[in-house]
Amino acid sequence: MGKIIIQRLVISILVMLAASFLSYFFLYMAPGDPAVSIIKSQTGREPTQAEIEIFRENRNLNIPLLDNITIWFGMLSKGDLGISVRTGEPVLHEFKDRFGATFLLAVISLVLAVLIAFPLGVLAATRPGSVVDHVTRVIGLGILSIPEFWLGLMLMVLFSLTLKWLPSFGYGTIYHFILPTVTLSTGMSALLMRLMRASMLEVLNLDYIKMARSKGLNRPLIIWKHAFRNALIPVITIIGTQFGHLLAGTIIIETVFSWPGIGKYLVDSIYARDYPVIQGFVFIIAAMFVVINLLVDLSYAYLDPRIRFEQGRN
Amino acid sequence: MESVLKIKDLSVNFNSKDGIVKAANNLNLTIYSGEILGLIGETGSGKTVLGQAIIKILPQTARVTGEIWYGNRNILALGEEEMNKIRGKEIALIFQNPSSSLNPSLKIGEQIAETVQKHQGLNKKEAWEKAEAILSQVGMPPRFAHYYPHQYSGGMRQRAMVAICLACQPLFYIADEPTRGLDVTVQNQIAGLLNSIIKNGKGQRSMLLITHDISVAAALTDSMAIMYAGEIVEYGPTREVFKNPLHPYSKGLLNSHPAKGLKPIKGFSPSLINLPEGCKFFSRCSRAEKDCQKEVPMFGRKGGKHIVRCFYA
Amino acid sequence: MSKKIFPKNRLLIFGLFLLTLLIMVSLLASYVAPFDPNYVEVENRLNRPGGKNILGTDGYGRDIFSRIVFGARFSLSLAVLVVLINLCIGVFIGTASGFFGGAVDELTMRLVDILLAFPNIIFALLVIGILGPSIPNLVFALVALGWTNYARITRGLVLSLKEQDFIISIKAIGGGDFYIITRHVIPSIIPFLVVLATLNMGHMIMSIAALSFLGLGVQIPTPEWGSMLSEGKQFIFTHPHVIISPGLAIIIAVFAFNLLGDGLRDVLDPRTKEIIKT
Amino acid sequence: MTFKFFHKGAALVLLCLMLFVMISGCGSNASDPKKVGEKAYPSDQKEQVLRLGAARDFKSAAQGRNMVFEYLVSVDHEGNPVPMLAELWEIPGDSKTYVFKIREGVTFHNGTEFDASLAKFALEYNANNSVWGKYLDKIETVDGNTVKVYLKDYYPLFLQDLAKNLVVSPDAVDPKGDPSGKLAEYIGTGPFKLVSYHKDRDAELVRNDNYWGKKSEINRVIWKTIPDPHAQIVALKAGDVDMIGITEHHSSVPYVEVPAMEDAGINVDKTSYGRYQVLEFNTLREPFNDRKVRMAFNYAIDKEKMVRELFHGLTEPAYTITAPWFKYGPSKVNSKYFHYDLNKAKSLLTEAGWSMNSSGKLEKEGKPLEVELLIPAGEANADAVAIFVQSELKKIGVELKLLTLESGAAWDRSKQGEYEMFVHHSFCLPWVPGGIDIGGKYHSGSTSWPAAYHSPELDRLIEEAWLTPDESKRKELINKVWDILHYEAPCIPLYDIVKVSAYRESITGFKPAPTMFDMDFSEIKIN
Predict the structure, then answer these.
(1) Which chains touch B (3 or more CB pairs under 8 A)?
(2) Are residues A41 and A133 in the same domain?
(3) For labelling alongside D236, which of B230, B274, D288, D515 has CA 20 to 30 A away?
(4) Which residues sit opposite B206 in a β-bridge?
(5) Which of B52, B101, B180 to mutate to test binding with chain A, by most A CBs within 10 Å of its CB?
(6) Do A252 and C274 lie within an 8 Å CB cutoff?
(7) In what order do the strands lie in the sheet with D267-271?
């Protein structure tokens, strides 16, 4: 296991470096001058050539590509992600200031989705072919067909505009969380429910479940202690690999609900060609992805003793 | 002798995509206390289904008719809750293939202890102590209770399986191919273990041993039932059946044993979906006559308890 | 067989029906649509549904129903294009990788691992955000990462096929690699690919709509469902009908593909269930 | 069994670590936005709290900065320099030396008194980031409240440039007192002090009771960041904010929402800052190298209808290149030059050699009249305008193709002259309107607009105006510039992008600020 983790870490670091290098390269090659777009966004007009020159000089935009990359890696080794061209603030600050909101939104939605999806998936799997199974299947497929951003807009129209029950935007009180998290967790729970059902069905047909029945254990114990735990393993793997999907969903939902998270900031930075921010964000997102996958691996090992021990022996 | 389990006219059908699978047809069988009854047959003859029907863990798609009398209770008429008081406590099923029948994510000790906890009302700690005791009873160090199934060898897993079944000291055991897939030396150890469980039961314990392995059956069982295509074709005390197999299938089966020179029965056993009318062995039988094809032969008594389902035996 | 499938797979049949309807509508768009989807009549803007505009008009007085009908043609063909490109690249790389193994396999699978680690919408956002919104850029953004899943699954299938007796025996009697791949390997994995591609279609329609919604999709005034939502978003509180019907169109199309894929998975091959989970 | 320990332990430790890092990372700002929201309700009658719904983060909006900071010199609505922290100024002799008299009794928010030395610091600080810095020779303090600035060359925009230079305290920059440092703290002289700030969420300001000018009735201003304009409107209707739109230089309030807002009892105020949206022609290429075609396109678009139907009549159609009322605006040209006239458009095109073919499209020598309109992504209202113009041009047989490019890529195209038509908006205050700036669009030296209309005569007039310090002479020259430009029709002015501010009925005394980058709270009251 230790070896595997080290192996994974090495690959992950390579992935992260490759990702940020690629994003940087893309930006560098792309048309458009960050100085122009940033001054334009701040002043709402075209800058003069003189203004552009001053801005470029002050924000270190005149450094050639290769020099810039070596500088960046040098800073990276010191844990410095550079300074945003647009705001002049350290990228790490910009990220930290916004990540909390995104993290809360994603985690609450995921927890909500898990709380809905797992019991429903188990219920459907334990009654295959029943009305419950059919209804959850059709509803699940239906929900998976709804674009998240559209659902968000519709919920906004219904609950904010028509019923006036909930705030439509912003961040702060618990009420602000309801619409975005419900929007995000709806699709997620449909997906997780389907996965849970399939995985559970598979496990329920295995011999050790029959064995558990033959021991006279009652149904809830068999389902939750014997089947659920084992059915969880593939589902958790998929949650891990779906993390990117979750993050992407969060970004779109953030723009719909004006959520002060990293998603909207990233989109704005892409438009403004704020190299250090994009580079740093891509690096951090890739790093998070890696950590999440590592956590998934660890939880996997925790749930499935076979992996824990067999790999431990290597 | 007192009978422990009486199976009367038991039929098991499954609905499948391709039609109705008749896994067992009008089975009648009695198991007496203190005895080991061998149920012998080829793979796919319905042996395992019979074992699982007794403890009622067949899939929901199975349709079971007939009666299974356990003492004065008809198991097939019992509700799930009552059944759970019998399973593991009074009747235990030793599964074939322990590597897939043990829960990979639970320690062996837990898998033993949970049965004890359920049936004997012990707390967790007491149940674990008991689990360790039972493990040593089946010849394994108690600390193995803290190991997971994948850390065991094949023979150890089978022992663990026996230990789980032994946990509540039930009186009736169903052992489903307990020696399958094991080395010969380990097979002997497991067979010895099973034998000792019954023989140490002071005549109270009995076992239904489901196997296709003739030598295990010869060594362990008191009486034998030979099954073919969902039906029992011959039944009798082990020694008599071995000495004088009556049914053509039994003869073939016993002759196909390596010790007797490996003479396989020609042809294949019929699919359980499209069973022929009349004698199921007809197509492979060297002695078959026209009427065998029309009518299922009834059991004929051939001295003592030895009975056979064949017109010409 | 078919008699037994039919009642069990009403959902599949329903999905097939919806899809046929969609394809018919998009093929016959110019006959189905009552108006030119790009005909601007600002005096008639934001009409509520009913009257001569069944689903009302949008912010420029264009007929929403006609735009949805033409949008079907556009959204479907774009999704089909992306899925097909992904499928071809993925199957090619996956087959080569699984069949020949070795360093090539090792290398491509590492690459696939790396690319799979990238959230695809974020990648598309980056690419289109930088290169600008256009159909080639959109296709590029969705293909750059989209083929990986096909490659991974194809490789897995090919690996298990390679070990099967019939392939080994064809190899033993001297069947060439090309022959084996085109005549035996590819045909045996087609059912899996069909299911995967069908389910992927729904996903692509949604991705394209999402990118268009963020203003990173097709050029105006192309009638595309996602950009209809993007354009209509400003009327959400005053004239919600402008965004309700295009959203429903997306749902119907994606639902049709999801039903079809889900049903096909049950019907085609029991193993597809284990291999394609989502 | 060490492995077992390793796994459970490691998993747990890692998980805790992750959670800790994540939560501590967001802890700094997740803690108290609620507090701000609660305070926002004016429970105390005496305290006047104004809650603004803003599209941008407080610190990244000029309007936010201008609540805290002031300038030495400001500009009025038309672009004339007016005194602010410099009470008056003199330009003795050569027009290269400026003497500023610093206002007395002004203190920074941290209590330090503003004087000539601090004014010198502020000028030095700004010289690093401004174009006038390149012309700077030296800065001297003459006495406690007089500063003298020597420029190396004549630079006509110096005073206008100062109107965007924040007067910051030496304590506000990091490192402290370093003119080349960067702004770290909001210590200014303005009417409000910043007390709390959460990035992308909110900021809270209290009135500066030591303010030198007219003090506002408002005790406290809450700046809430709500990027989505529709969300802003909902918040305004729901009473979560009191005012929207005022914090943006562009109109962020969608015109389409205005009637519904007015129905809901919300006051809507529109202010023109002379910013016009225009369609620029590439005058170097067919067909727009022909003045008649450019004029025909101008005549072909019914701007009245566009403004009425698309913008609910909130804005005014534009018939000059920029607002005539600017200091250097085209006030003397015939503003009715390009009114909608389909027949005139058609006959001009015929004169230019374009004739209608059988399928109702214009063509010349077999080539159809097809042009492409380039739209930089994100240009406000550009999609609506483009679709409208497309349908208008179709009526005279012109096929307009639309191409949206990411804005950086679009501007690159403009720099290379790779476009046929281009939608953008004009300069505005406090910058001098287009034409006079040497880098501006209609001088041939323009790097951004090599394909805009240029001529040697125009270049000469622009350069002369630039170098003429005498105001009346300069205005005369500029009027000639505008005459040429309006004759040549180098673009299609579309409409005036008015800034829409909307506020709850309880608010009185709203007054538009002189520039779109400022806010005027001096008369506002909450009832």
Answers:
(1) A
(2) no
(3) D515
(4) B172
(5) B101
(6) no
(7) D192-198, D202-207, D220-225, D49-54, D243-244, D499-503, D267-271
Triad D74, D75, D78: Cα angle to 5° = 175
Q: Three-state SS across A126-168?
A: HCCCCHHHHHHHHHHHHHHCCCHHHHHHHHHHHHHHHCCCCCC
Tell whether D132 and D234 lie within a shared domain.
no
Which of A109-118, C187-196, D198-207 shows the lowest mean pLDDT across its residues?
C187-196
The candidate with the shortest Cα–Cα distance to B107, out of B67, B154, B72, B146, is B146
What's the average model confidence in pLDDT over C43-63? 85
DSSP string, C39-67: ---GGGTTPPSBTTBTT-B-TTS-BHHHH
Give the tokens for residue D123. Answer: 């000028």
Residue A156 to residue D12: CA distance in whole angstroms: 39
Chain A residue numbers touching D133 (CB-CB < 8 A): 54
Q: pLDDT category, D27, cuts 50, 70, 90?
A: very low
ipTM of the complex: 0.76
- Asked if residue D484 lies in contact with residue D457, where contact means CB atoms within 8 angstroms, the answer is yes
| pLDDT surpassing 50 at residue D43 | no
Let me know whether D163 and D234 are in one domain. no
Q: How far apart are CA D525 and CA D509, in angstroms?
A: 6
Same domain, residue pair A117 and A46: no
Q: Which of C42, C131, C237 sits opposite D230 (nearest CB)?
A: C237
Q: Could you tell me if residue D43 is inside a domain? A: no
Print burial letters for C211-221: b (CB count within 10 Å at least 16), e (below 16): bbbbbbbbbbb
Rounded Cα gap, residues D69 and D108, in angstroms: 9
CB burial of residue D389 (10 Å; 0-12, 13-18, 19+): buried
Which domains, and CATH codes, for chain C? 2-24+62-277 (1.10.3720.10)
Q: How many domains does chain D have?
A: 3
Whether D379 and D519 map to the same domain: the answer is no
Which subunits sit against C, judged by 3+ Cβ pairs under 8 A?
A, D
pLDDT tens sequence across D377-428:
878 888 889 999 999 999 889 999 998 887 778 888 888 889 999 998 876 5
Residues D414 and D368 in one domain: yes
**Which of C119, C130, C247 comes nearest A147 by C-beta?**
C247
Q: Nearest 5°: phi and psi at A195?
A: -65, -45
Q: What is the DSSP string of D308-376?
A: IIISTT-S-B--SSS-TTSTTS-TTS-TTTT---HHHHHHHHHHTT-EE-TTS-EEETTEE-EEEEEEE
The reply to whether A29 touches chain D by the CB within 8 Å rule is no
Q: Name residue, tokens 């900065």.
A: D65
Q: What is the pLDDT of residue D372?
A: 93
* Contact criterion met (CB < 8 Å) for A218 and B84: yes
What's the full length of chain C, in residues? 278
Q: How remote is the C-alpha of D57 from its chain's centroid?
A: 16
Interatomic CA distance for residues B116 and B128, integer angstroms: 9
Determine the residue type at D127.
A
Cβ-nearest to D409 among A32, A46, A88 = A32
Structural domain for D208, as ranges? 192-272+499-526
C58 in contact with D, Cβ within 8 Å? no
Are D305 and D451 within one domain?
Answer: yes
pLDDT tens, residue by residue, A270-281 = 777 777 787 787
Same domain, yes or no, for D200 and D150? Answer: no
> Using CA atoms in the order A198, A202, A205, A210, what is the torsion angle rounded to 10 degrees?
-100
- Per the CB < 8 A criterion, the answer to whether B181 and B154 are in contact is yes
- Tell me the mean pLDDT in the region A68-97: 76
Query: Searching chain C, which residue's CA lies closest to the CA of residue A188?
Result: C278
- DSSP code at position B282: G
Measuring CA to CA, which residue among B273, B292, B274, B291 is closest to residue B282?
Answer: B292
